[in-house]
Amino acid sequence: MDFTYELRTKIIFGAGRLADLGREAKAFADQNVLIVTDPGIVAAGLADKAGQVLTSVGLEYSVFAGVSANPRDDDCCEAAAAAVAFDAQAVIGLGGGSALDTAKSAAALVTNGGRVKDWEDPRQLERAPLPTIAVPTTAGTGSEVTWVAVITDQEHHYKMTLLDQRIAPEVAILDPDLTLSLPAGMTAATGMDALVHAIEAYTCKAANPIGDALALRAIGLVAGALAVAVKDGENSGARADMLLASLLAGLAFGNADVGAVHCMGESLGGLYDTPHGVACAVFLPYVLEFNLEADWVKHAGVARALGAGTADMSDADAARSGVEATRALMTEVGTPRLHELQELSREDLETMAHLSAEHVCSPDNARDIGYDDYLDLFTKAYAE
Fold this sequence. Notes:
By secondary structure, this protein is α/β, with parallel strands linked by helices.
């Protein structure tokens, strides 16, 4: 047993804890703070709500609301320019994973210059980013506690990765009340993203015992709460459970890795701008079934955390039941099929298979996987 587990982020969790934002921001800024968010968060009044907390402690704030559904290199540059123009001393990411990743990237660009492409993994930052506080309004990405940001390269149509321990936020404030207004479709998509994070963190080759414990708990929380949150968005208990699941899954994969589901989902998203949670969810059962033989015991653990595998089942039978449990959950929450998302040609499938095989996370997939395997999985997913 040989592993390293690191955590840089102070975590604040609970209903109403947005009220802590002013005190936490004051630790890094005595004057100006930039809020990085998207138009939907502004329209919902959440940016104003956060701003009121900041002004109550004497801070000035400005809002950059140019974040795209899949964050882009240009978004990050524009947010960084907004931070410089406002002389911001800290950056607050408010929103889903796109807003959080844009905020993390912008904070890095302010102090290091250039574009995200210039700092793409494996290159490390030269200087520490501006201090960052993450305030998620969706339950899925776990980006509030990870030191990775995934940004779309608009020129080459793929998702690149900024990877540096220093981009992890100094503080994460998780207030389930901020997720109550999340629409059902987005609740489902982000919730499935959390499930994928947990399953891949637990089964990938880079898994570790601390992450395993967190991932199993996250899987169980999603199994019990996601369908409830989708059907009854005002259910505060289900919302809190899903936000906790997202956090735990982020803590799990942040110190492990993800696998082929993310390689495929990000290939699709990079080409067609498909929302990340949906892009990953459509491939989960296919990759899960492909990976079973790599570790029957761990995949049986996934099934049992989902409430599928009974104690008297063999590990192999329990593992197989986990695949069906994921399919059943996807149907219950309305996850679309791949052919419903995008009309694809054989050439598209081949392109995505190449991108997936070259993805930085592919080597850590639970089972060795290459171009031919990816093409087969894409073909199966599209045919159904």
